[in-house]
Write a structure and sequence with these properties.
Blueprint (H helix, E strand, L loop, with lengths): L1 H17 L14 H10 L3 H6 L10 H6 L10 H11 L12
Helix pairs in contact: 2-5
């Protein structure tokens, strides 16, 4: 049991040491795309609001934010994923559908 733990621990440590750190991609305005993605996972629309520089509440994408309170459509659900993908791609739109 101790040997198995030591092997797993050594493997995890090796992964941490050999995995290179990546710099966070910056969006327009110098804000980080990964940070915006996590804000959008917290609640739909908040990541886009962060990318716009916070400010007055009308800067937030209103449809994504308010519809985000609907269970399983907003959070957790479709809008949470849509908002996180948009924020990770530095998009600040309020579009609720995917474009082909």
């Amino acid at each position: 049991m101790v040997l198995r733990f030591a092997v797993v621990f050594a493997f995890a440590l090796a992964l941490l040491v050999t995995t290179p750190a990546q710099a966070e991609r910056k969006c327009e305005g110098g804000r980080g795309a990964q940070s915006a993605m996590w804000f959008s996972i917290l609640h739909p629309g908040v990541g886009e609001y962060y990318l716009k520089g916070w400010g007055p509440f009308p800067n937030a994408p209103q449809k994504k934010f308010w519809l985000g309170f609907i269970p399983f459509y907003g959070w957790p659900g479709y809008l949470q994923v849509k908002s996180a993908i948009d924020a990770a791609n530095c998009l600040t739109n309020d579009d609720l559908s995917y474009k082909d």
